[in-house]
Amino acid sequence: MPADGQSQRAARQHVNRREFLKRAGWGSLGITGFLVGTGGSRGFAHPPSPFPTWDPASAKSPRRGGILTRASAWDPPVLDPRLTNSVGLFQIATLTYNRLLRYLFADEAKNNSDLTLTGDLAEAWEGSPDFKTWTFNLRQGVKWHNVPPLNGRELVADDIKYCYEAYAKEGVQSFTFQEIDGMETPDKYSIRIHLKVPNTMFPQNVAEAVTVIFPREVLEEDGDLKKRMIGTGPFILKEHDRKVKVVLTRNPDYFDKGYPYINEYRILSTPDAATRLAAFRTGQSDILVLQSLADVETVRKTNPTAVVEEVANVLAPFGLALRQDKPPFNDVRVRRAISMAIDRQKQVNTLYEGHAILGWGIPYFYWQEELPSAPDLGPYWQYRPEDAKKLLAEAGYPHGFETTLFYYEYFPQMTSQIQLVQQDLKRNLNIELKITKNDYTTYFGRYAEGKWEGTAWGFQTGYAVSLDERSYQYMHSKSPKNYFHVADPVIDELTTALRQTPDRAEQRAITKKIVEREHDQVLRMWMPYDAGFYLWQPHLRTIGQLDLRGNFGYGSSTLARLWIDK
Amino acid sequence: MHKYIIRRLLLAIPVMLLSSLIVFGLMRVMPGDALTALMAESGNVSERELQKLRKDLGLDLPYYEQYLIWLWQMVSLNPGYSIFTSEPIPVALKKSIPVTIELTLLAMILGLVIAIPIGVLSATRQDKPSDYVGRLVAISGLSLPDFWLGTLVITFAAIWFSWIPPLGYASVWESPWTNLQQFLLPAAVLGFRLSAATMRMTRSTLLEVLREDYVRTAWSKGLGERVIIYKHALKNALIPVVTIVGGQLGTLLAGTVIVETIFALPGMGRLTVEAILYRDYPIVQTNVMLVAGTLVMLNLLVDLTYAWLDPRIHYQ
Asked: Which of B41, B57, B161, B277 to mutate to test the interface with A (most CBs of A within 10 A)?
């Protein structure tokens, strides 16, 4: 799933139903593609929208109180953070629990791409010279929620140790925490973590939304964390009625004094996109995610005072995954030919109304200042069908070949996007792509467990902010999160080196090399994407959207700083 | 009559057994399982760990063993736990069944309240403007899919009246007014479809009955129109209507899936669909068996209603 991907998917369901109705008269996307042809700008695929990507914190004095309500597409599948990385869970868990470290909140950050780390449960941290040992000094006086069995007990270093050991033992976080060789707690408020291999970016990894600290008492009493959610966070879970609502109430003993501002946060389970839109229009929901500018304008006709923020596009979460350890995709010429035969700009123009990025995998700000334009993505990201044809012939496939693709429709546009790829490959390379649409569980089972041949419509997971996660963990051949089956010794070397490089400028240079290598070898064939727009009711303050985190999915913790001006 | 009922109930046993086999088999044929769904967005869980979790959940047992265990649980009225949430299934059902029952009943009441008078009006004013309007309404109801109508209703309610039903769910006992607001629109959407089929059937059967000899006799005796239609004709015309309504219950239950999703109601439909998507076998199997059982009982009830409506019908 992409960053806040479910919200985007949800928004797209709405958009696409509308889009579908709007475009039904066109007959089909094939005709759309024919009509639009290959026209459009080749240089830059992301014209600016009239809406800002950053809403600075209000200069007014914050007011306390009020209820924030959001109609949400997400339901937590389970409450146990060891068992899922679902955004449905972490939209709540990041508000009830804390992590050792966190990224800046909306009122602290300079802009949406400010990824400065700060303390959450820890107030200071430092690495050993070899970056194999990290020491975290905890805040004193942090209390667990004042509900049984914790009853406001103080959080101590042993809690962190217990929690990280539990993560390493089983569940979805085990890969991150199995990198820990051992832990010591020299005193109540410090923990020393020894890693098996050096990692300069370990602090970023323990700032990820999914590394929340849970209490040992609940796990020991219940045997799991499925029934209760007791943490140290700004909100206390007051009510969880599955498929109806989640109610979070202000934690009066929160260690970050004065926060949160709002008294209650209600998340109303609303699976249908049209209903979420209607809820925003009628004021039943304070927040809405939409995909297209046209949709934003439609909503502003009924809600002219709604505040709109464009979600900055920093990466593409979806792309064509090739079984590159097997023929024909183990031949780089085949991969390059396929990439050059796909007209990404056409996808941008037709599916995203001209407002999308061409697609790359590692957040751009980790390797360059400006949003990449087409030339930044290298020769194989350009649409060059003739060169593609020659290259495929050189690779021994002058008449093309047949292959398969399976996917899950995260949002209806995705089907159209895949069909455009299918048409491009057929027309330009005579590659016959047989497409199978799976339901989510089937797709995920095949994709993530690697039990597939040919091609798949791949994704990268949504919660990750850290460069380590986006590089080493997603691309190293030995990483279990290497969904795209990247098996490139140069990438292995570079991503390993990146982990051992503390200097930001050097990290940036290495990351640039990783991206260039990825594009040169076409290891992951990213496709155009647009993250859409957030709409807020006008009385909400401190709503700056934060890159890769958003404000109410994995990045919910920033809601501790939101306030209601009415 | 008693013998008939007992025979029908005995016949229900193989039907239910067959249903159980079908639903159990279909769920196992579908690729993936609850763990795959649970670990979604993670992908970093080793095969060894997955095996361990599968063992904990009993998913590693041979299918026949899983089936027999589940069958025993159903017979002993203890359907077990949701694989996904570990919530006891009776708890999940206790929350969702009242929602679906209320929605279905309200939809049925609204459907019948609309359908029968319009059907009667259409039949008694055949080929008059009111008949054409009635037929148009009926055809619309049959043609418009629930998801489209539901979306339209909620969208235009928001745009025109700045109002939609309050999101969430309030039980009728806790807050009757909120509950009514939450259920009225979805029930109307659901009932509209039911009313269409019922309306058409009422019209056509009533037209047929109105041409029967005994009705002609009633006219010749000088009885009033109201007495002839409502006392003599309509009761006999209702037998096929009852069949239609009984048959429509299955459609109605299927329609709740869409309507519950659009109007965010936590009923059986949403519970089942979510369970299918997440391969929560026990929930799907239990829900399907409940629906199968309900339909078997309703069919029996419909058959018994025939005898009540038409004294000439006897069951032996």
From this structure: B41
Chain B residues near residue A278 by CB distance under 8 angstroms: 154-155, 157-158, 164
Residue A48: per-residue pLDDT: 66
ipTM: 0.85
What is the C-alpha to C-alpha distance for residues B82 and B61, in angstroms, rounded to an integer? 17
Q: What is the pLDDT of residues B13-68, one digit of tens each?
A: 999 999 999 999 998 888 777 777 766 655 556 666 677 777 777 788 899 999 99
Residue A262 is encoded by which pair of tokens? 């709002």
CB A522 within 8 A of CB A335: yes
Nearest to A115 by CA among A357, A321, A364, A317: A364
- Helix extents (H) in chain B: 2-29, 34-38, 47-56, 63-75, 89-124, 129-143, 146-161, 176-210, 213-220, 225-226, 234-262, 268-277, 281-309
Q: Is the dihedral of CA B262, B264, B268, B270 positive or negative?
A: positive
Question: Which among A172, A274, A483 has the least Cβ separation from residue B39?
Answer: A172
A402-408 vs A455-459, strand pairing mode: parallel
User: pLDDT per residue over B131-158, tens digit each?
Assistant: 999 889 888 888 999 899 999 999 999 9
- Tell me which residue of A346, A339, A331 sits closest to A360, measured CA to CA: A339
- The shortest CB-CB distance from A442 to any of B31, B87, B157 is to B31
Q: Do A270 and B167 touch (CB under 8 A)?
A: yes
Token digits for A232? Answer: 């140290």
CA gap A316, A548 in Å, rounded: 11
Q: Are strands A432-438 and A402-408 parallel, antiparallel or unpaired?
A: parallel
